[in-house]
Automatic annotation (TrEMBL):
This is Malic enzyme. (S)-malate binds at R192, N447, N491. Coiled coil: none annotated. Keywords: Metal-binding, NAD, NADP, Oxidoreductase. Its cofactor is Mn(2+); Mg(2+). It comes from Solanum tuberosum (Potato). NCBIfam families: PRK13529.1 (NF010052). The keyword NADP applies. One of its GO terms (molecular function) is NAD binding. PROSITE patterns: MALIC_ENZYMES (PS00331).
Amino acid sequence: MESTLKELSNGESVLDIKDKCGVAGGVEDMYGEDRATEDQTITPWTFSVASGYSLLRDPHYNKGLAFTEAERDAHYLRGLLPPSVSSQQLQEKKVMHNLRQYQVPLQRYMAMMDLQERNERLFYKLLIDNVEELLPVVYTPTVGEACQKYGSIFRRPQGLFISLKEKGKILEVLKNWPEKSIHVIVVTDGERILGLGDLGCQGMGIPVGKLSLYTALGGVRPSVCLPITIDVGTNNQKLLDDEFYIGLKQKRATGQEYAELLEEFMSAVKQNYGEKVLIQFEDFANHNAFELLAKYRTTHLVFNDDIQGTASVVLAGLIASLKLLGGTLADHTFLFLGAGEAGTGIAELIALEITRKTSVPLEEARKKIWLVDSKGLIVSSRVESLQHFKKPWAHDHEPVKELIDAVKAIKPTVLIGTSGVGKTFTKEVVEAMASLNPKPLIMALSNPTSQAECTADEAYTWSKGHAIFASGSPFDPVEFEGRTFVSGQANNAYVFPGFGLGIIMSGTIRVHDDMLLAASEALASEVTEDDYLKGRIYPPFTNIRKISAHIAAEVAAKAYELGLATRLPRPSDLVKYAESCMYTPLYRSYR
Ligand SMILES: O=C([O-])CC(=O)C(=O)O
Ligand SMILES: [Mg+2]
């Protein structure tokens, strides 16, 4: 002891160190941890079994004041908590009360993230029981603002960051994650966060938010969910100039360098977690999104939420809307503003559904679907210069530059906004839709709310109450001429949680488009007469866990039918089985 205090292993004396840092370690600083200077190494000791103080700080197991008297005795918690014992219900009431005190949405977001990091089960209990209220907090629109300001509000890291610095070491990085068994990864490279553009490393809010919905809406256990952000730099100059930016301060790597990092990532994931881990691509820019999906869909269990998830949800709304509009999908004419991931993904799935329901070939089915991009209507004279994912939509027509002129020329029954650019469904556009159709179907899908093509209020007012409206981000009900209109939220959150659950519970090894159609049909069948009366073509989120179980069952059924499910024998009642697989956030008793 004497010698430890006086002379450290590197030969420096305590006095030397005192000179350097101005403090000594104090009494009982046995391992020299406190008196070590910055250039000396120490061992970060910890205990492997959570009990006492560390139990209170482990978000998976912490119950705060809800630890019972017996648990406080058995787990060394005496004195570490005040005497009061509270129920989970009372904790929920308190936290909801506190959250509602915050006027600023971002403060609610931060409070929710703190709760997730402090007491995971309470976080999910709140989210499940108050889904309509809290979805806009942990998800769109607030998550968008959170990503924009992620560096400034950063407290504790969530998820796994894989940057160019980790090239050649991605497998080791995966092993640093505390959970060994992973079933779903949501990964972004931050290049197209919602309709907000390139937010680089700060896109992490998206995988974190999406996976919290996997658990809350789809019942996938939080421990098997892994949020990942791949940081290859950012082209957002504002972030590069921001002293609080948390990512690599360099321009985006592209081409081979990008492809190699992603290849290493995809292989490492498969090597570490096996064949049956679902990888959800989220908010990649168009070119990478299509390329990655095409490249990995035959070798990995991958799903692009912005292309396929959005498509499945929108198709569900369209199928449901037929009850209000009459006819079949093939009787309608669709016009899109935006020909990126969501636009072309939805268009392709509509065409596929038409071919499955009629004898119309795919080429013919596509002809009822028109897309407008930043250069105007996509027509055959533009085909040479079009990106490959737009080419199938280049139909014969003279060039049209503006959306309003495209509406007048094409006379769509359905108008869908997927451009990521807000305020583009102008009064003139909505009025034109209303003059062409007794019930124009208008979907303003871009997120967050600031990027919505029009608001619910605008859609109902400008169409004089005739529009059927749905949007990607939520809008409050609208009063118009004595009637209350409740719009639906056409957001991929309706599908991916149940879709993922269906894949996981059946051990499915590849995603097939027919599973997306199955999910659409399942979701559409959940819309009730009451919803239709209010003008909505999506069910409320309040019943989402029941809906997710139903979607999971239909997706799994399709996977078994296609021979892609590996969990055998097939459970006879897939809905019951899905429900039995779902995580519930009630506290467990500790022995
Ligand atoms: O996150 C959302 O709300 C929907 C979505 O995938 C996107 O807009 O990219
Ligand atoms: Mg997205």
